[in-house]
Amino acid sequence: MLNANSVLIKNGLSSDMGSDMNDKGTYGFVNGWTKDFKTIAVIVCNYNDKETTIMLSHYGKSIDSTDDLFNKLRKSKW
Question: What kind and span of H or E run contains 66?
């Protein structure tokens, strides 16, 4: 999770992280957002399955910069 947090900060997103449990096990999450709150990224780390998922939401018309950010985040080493 620390690596995911670093990746979000490196790409210009403020971040916050935490963990929780549900019926499927324990998971951690790192949330990131831009200063204008138009772009939000979430990286979820499922500890039991050893899988991570990234979600990105963007409000606005700049699809190219959003795709570029998503690809940078997706290719980063968490």
Answer: helix 63-75
